[in-house]
Every structure is written in C-alpha cells, then in structure tokens.
Amino acid sequence: MSPKSKEQFEAIRQKSEATIKSVALELFASKGYNNTSISQIAKAANVSKGLMYNYFDSKEDLLHTILMEAIEEGAGAMEEFLQNRHDPLDELIGITKASIAMVKTNFHYWKLMTALAFQENVITDVKDILEKKQEAIINQIFSIFEHLGAKQPKLEAYLYGAILDGVMVHYINMGEDYPLDEMETYIIEELKRKYGGGGEGRIGRSKDE
Amino acid sequence: MSPKSKEQFEAIRQKSEATIKSVALELFASKGYNNTSISQIAKAANVSKGLMYNYFDSKEDLLHTILMEAIEEGAGAMEEFLQNRHDPLDELIGITKASIAMVKTNFHYWKLMTALAFQENVITDVKDILEKKQEAIINQIFSIFEHLGAKQPKLEAYLYGAILDGVMVHYINMGEDYPLDEMETYIIEELKRKYGGGGEGRIGRSKDE
Amino acid sequence: MSPKSKEQFEAIRQKSEATIKSVALELFASKGYNNTSISQIAKAANVSKGLMYNYFDSKEDLLHTILMEAIEEGAGAMEEFLQNRHDPLDELIGITKASIAMVKTNFHYWKLMTALAFQENVITDVKDILEKKQEAIINQIFSIFEHLGAKQPKLEAYLYGAILDGVMVHYINMGEDYPLDEMETYIIEELKRKYGGGGEGRIGRSKDE
Amino acid sequence: MSPKSKEQFEAIRQKSEATIKSVALELFASKGYNNTSISQIAKAANVSKGLMYNYFDSKEDLLHTILMEAIEEGAGAMEEFLQNRHDPLDELIGITKASIAMVKTNFHYWKLMTALAFQENVITDVKDILEKKQEAIINQIFSIFEHLGAKQPKLEAYLYGAILDGVMVHYINMGEDYPLDEMETYIIEELKRKYGGGGEGRIGRSKDE
DNA sequence: CATGAATGAGTATTCATTCAT
DNA sequence: TATGAATGAATACTCATTCAT
Fold first, then answer.
1. Is the N or the C terminus of chain A less surrounded, counting Cβ atoms within 10 Å?
2. Is B1-56's fold the same as B59-195's?
3. What superfamily in CATH does domain A1-56 come from?
C-alpha cells in the first residue's frame, strides 16, 4: 500500500529472515529439531506460519540454511585463528583455542550440530560437508603431529581429536558447570610440555631420539 | 488343561519380546528414537503393530526397557573389569578397557544412548540414572588420579574422561573405519608412560624414563 | 484328559457361562458397555479371552443375551405381581410395587438398560422388544385409568409412567441416597387417595363429573 | 497489511467453530459421545479431520464446550421464567414451563446430557456442575412445597422432580410422538388443582372440597 | 474344552505444508 | 508481501476377534 522502495523491502526481508533463523536455531538447539514445530518458531519470531515459506522451502531447508552458515562461520573462525602460524605447536594451540572459542561463542549451533550428528536421515548433505571438513582438519592435525615428530602421528592426531571433541561434548552436556577455560589452559599446557621447549617433551619428543 | 503349556507360552513370549527389543534397538540406534515409528518396528520385526503393546506399555516403555538393560549390562561389565584391581594404574587401565569393550560389544546400545544424551525431553529418568552412574565414575577416576599423585587430579580426570568419551563418539560416528583397538593400546601405553614405573610420573615427565 | 461325563462338562459350561454373564453385567453397568473390554471381563471372570467366544459370538451377543434375560425376568416378575388382581387400583399398585422391586433387586440390569436406552446404534433388536413391552404396559395402564374413570386416561397414564420412570432414573443416578421406599409408599398413598375409597379420589375423582 | 482482515478471519473462525459444534452436538446426541469419532464429525461437517483441533483442544474439550453452553443457556432460560414470580404456585408453574421449553428447544442438548448422565468416566467436571445446579433446583422446589403447605414437602418435591424428569426422558426417547404440550398443560392443571384456590390445598385435600 | 499370542482396523491427535485473500 | 484457516498423511495406541496348539 504505502510506497516502499526496493531497499526497504529488502531490509524487511533480511530482518525477518534473520529473526526466523535465530529463533529457529535457539528452539532447535534447546528443544531439538523434531520437537520444534513451525508454529512455535513462527510464534516466537512474531511472524505468520505462511511467511516462513517465503524464505525457506521447508522446515528442513531452514535447518539446512542454519547449519551451513554455522559451518562456514566455524571454518572462517578456524582460518583466522590459524593465520600466520607456521610453527606446528602454535598451530595446534591455535586449533585448540579456535575450537573452544567456537563452541563457547556459538553454543546453540554446536549443541544442535552435535545432536544432529547422532541422527541418521537428517540432512545428509550437511553431514557430508561436515565430514569432509572434519577429515581435512584431521589431516591437518596429522601433518602437524608429523612435523612435531610424533612417533605415531596418526594415533596422536586421533587422540588429540578425541580430547577436543570429548571436551566439547562434555561442555555441551554440562553447560556452565563445565570448567571449560581451565580445561583449555590445561590442554595447552600439556601440549607445550609434550612438544614445546627444547622439543624434549615426552610424546613426540622424537627429534632427540 | 491347556493345550499349550505354560512353558510353551513363556517361550513364545520370550522370543517375541526379544525380537521386538532387538529390532527396536537397531532402528532406534540407526534412525533415532523419534524417527522410528511403531509401524516400522513392527514391519522390521515381521509382527503386527499391536503386538508390541502385549509386551510393553508404550513406545517409551520399550526404549526404557532397552536402555535399562544396557545400563545394567554396562555396570556389570565395568564391575568385572575392576575386580581385584587395587593398583590405581591398573584400575585406570581396567576402566579404559571396560569402556572400550562395552561400546564395541554393544555398539547399538551406545549409539542410541549417545544420541539420546543430546536430545531434550526424552526419558528423563534414564538420564538421571545415567548421570548418577557417570558422576560416580568421574569421582572414582578423580580419586584414582589423586592416588597416582597427579598435580591437578580434577582436570586430569576430566581430560581422561574427555579422551574416553571422545574416542567413543568418534567410534560411534565412524564405525569400523575407526582404529578403536589401536587407540585402546595407545591410550593404555600413554597411561603407563605417565603413571607407570615409580608411580610418580605425569605427562611429560618422560625424561626420567 | 481325565474322563469327564457329559453332565460334568455341561455343568462346567453352565457355570462358566453364568460367571461370564454376571461379571459382564456388573462391569457393563458400572463402567459402561463401551468402556468395558473383553479382556477385563475375562480377567474378572477368571477365564481366558478365547473362552468367551465359545459361549458368545461376540461382545454384542454377550450384551444381547444379558439384556434378554433381564427383560424376560422383568416381564415374569411383573406378571407375578399382577396375578389375581382384578381391581384396577390394585393393579396399579401392583405395577408400582413390581417396578420398584425390580429396579431395586436388579439394580445393575436397570442401570445398564437405562444407559443403553440413550445410545443409538446399540442392540436395536433389544430396543424393539423393549419398546413393544413398554407399549404393552402403557396400554395396560391406559386401560386401568379408563376403568378408574379418569377424565383424561391417556395423559394420566403418561403421567403415571413418567412418575415411575422418573423415580427409577433418580434411584439409578443417586443410588442408596434416594428414598426409594418412602417414595413407593408415597406414590401408592397418592394413588389410593385419588382413586381409592368410594372412587372419589381427587384426580379423576369422578363424582364432580 | 494482511490481505485478509482480522474481521474476515474472525468471521471464518466463528462459522467453522459453530459448524463443528452443531454437527458434533447432533452426532453426539444421536450416536453417543463414545460412538462418534472425530472422523465422522469432520466428514459430516465437510471439513478435514485436523480442523477441529484449531478450535478445540481435544474431543473432550469439544464436548465440554457444547455442554457448558447448554447448561448456561438452560440456567438463563430458567432465570427468565422465574422472574417476577413470587407466588409459590406460579414459581412451580414457571419451572415446569421452563423445563419443558428447554428440552423442546434444545432437544439434542438434553438428549446428549441425559445420555452422559448414565455414563461413567465422562466429563466429571460437567457432571459436578450439573449436580450442583440440580441440587439447587431441588432445594428450591422443596422450599416451594413448604410454602405451599405440603404435608411431606420433601417427598412431594421428589415426586414433582420425578414427573419432570420422567416426562423429559419419555420425550427424549419417543421424540415427536410424545404429547409434550398436552402433558405440560395437564401437569400445570394438576398443580393448580392441588395447590391453587386459597393456596391451602394439597394433594388429597380433595375430599374437603 | 481352554489358552493367550497375534492381528489389524479403528481412534484421537499432531504438524508440515498449501492457498485464498 | 503476509496471514492464518484448512488440509491430510502420519503417529501412538486400543481392542474385538481369530487361531494354533
């Protein structure tokens, strides 16, 4: 009715879409994807049910969009953390910090992602992308441990990955009760002890060998 | 009197109940509890939709029963592994072996359990039981690390817990691609390296060796 | 297995059938026909579900049988009460007493029957029979009031019928709180006052006519 | 903004809700609450199965709503009939007329209500309300008979109640075959005959006349 | 004759999605 | 563009009835 410029419409669109996504993320994360209905999202976002379908093809598409953004943001953050780090140990510490910062900053994203990781039949293509990214990271970590001269770089990489994921899983489950910062410090200390200093660290202290 | 003896009926019941439970476990684990319908279970078990209700009060009761059995079996296995181990390091190794054996033997159980751990609004009383068991184990591990003379037994206990859970999560997600046995060996070796010998060890103290 | 004579079998049959019927009546009356399951009846009667179908074709047949017996018993009782009463007022009093005695003695029957009377689609042929019997009674009552010289025998008959059914309905709903005996006495007194003595009773107290 | 105005939506809602309620009432009354399925209501109302749940929380809520409206309407009608009547006999006549008018105007409501009165386990809170209302009426009637100088006001009140309920039950069961209007006139005449004139009358007082 | 395991049609209810306006 | 009423397929669960033994 009232004359609105294209920009205004576009701004409204952006805002509505963003609201919907953010509300949906929160609900998906806290109640689970299956237990969150479109009606609930619409109500919480203060829009009509029908409007959702102007922005997203389906509930699954909404989830898809949210996840993709999270993954990209995560990748971006990781990238940033690793920039200009050429020392393997530094890289490892960077990955550690980046991972923990990520799960801390985007708690809802990761809670949702983790929950979905254990459900088949949901969003297989997101899973594929995720798996590829994870594989890439694992490979990078593997190569770092090689550079660090670890005896069994593969197992060491898996172990490190298990630590990171284990910590994240615990944090997601326990929330603020979990001593996430202390753990971060502790893990980094351990890494330094093993691989730092004169490289005389126990595990992978290999160069002396 | 009855042309079918009590024993016959009992045998039939046993068999049907077992079939339903096993089929349900498999489907719950692979597709998720919420995404598995009674119809699907019935079809996969080659029985009628209604039969489940001869054995279980509800879908939730079916899940409940399955989980409780898994938990008890798990507790039993852990008990067994820890019998007659009074040396702290031995205990730790026992826990490691038991945990990994458990997730290996009862893959579906643990996949299901893990998935449920990340879902809200499901089977809260099982969650409660599980949390209590986990707390007990954490406390035991904490006390083990105290006995082992760890400087920061709490963080060390959390770290060890993160490793175990991280490994299990990876195994659950990757399946047979994951080098579970190698990881077990590696973790145990690490434990021995850290705390073996005079027992005064800790990570990175390696130079004494 | 053990040799049993035909008579023994027959006796068992009789007993089982009677038990089932009596248990079913009680359950139907107290919980309603639709809310009573075959399983519940079988359990309460201490027989197997399957056995029921040896005696009755279906749940509906069971109800049917129960109702028919009740109706016949009712008719018999009425007959008895009316025997050898040739004075119209006596007949009316007899019907009153018989009706009230019936509902009192066979409380469950009448509770069930009343409940079913307000449900369509149940046992239409029983309804038909019942309606015929009621019509017969109404006609008889009508003729009694004619003999008593009532001005409007039809309406008087309906009024009397309404009183009887109203009392029964109240009794069925209130149970022992209802002063059934007092009401019986009162109604009979009223009848005598109206039609008794020289026939100068109030209503239809024909001398004014 | 919205191409369908609030008023339009409201009108649609009103209409749909009214249709569903009216169709449901008819079916509940003729087939019984338990024997009427949501599917049947939807089919008869020419709407989808799910639509009912846009307006009512459950089948029970639908029944509840229907009954409450009937009860309120009934109470209102009774009130109206009793306004400005201070003479006890007039009151009694008013109650009579109101009751009969009510059952005549809202045949389906009262058929349903009566049927439910004989069913266990249905809508207990409506039953409670109804019982309270009935008790209030009974007390009022009792007090009227006291004022009228009846010798046994309690029994007389019960008798009158039985007449009213008996007539209603007959009308509900026989439908238009029942001479409801004639009965109304007749009952009122009887009341006048008994208690009219100097107001000193009571049943059986007739011989003094 | 007697059992109770098994069946499957039927029930109430939910919810992603469509569509007239 | 935005609304929310309407749809209908899907879900968990019930229960009269059948049947192998």
1. N
2. no
3. Homeodomain-like (1.10.10.60)
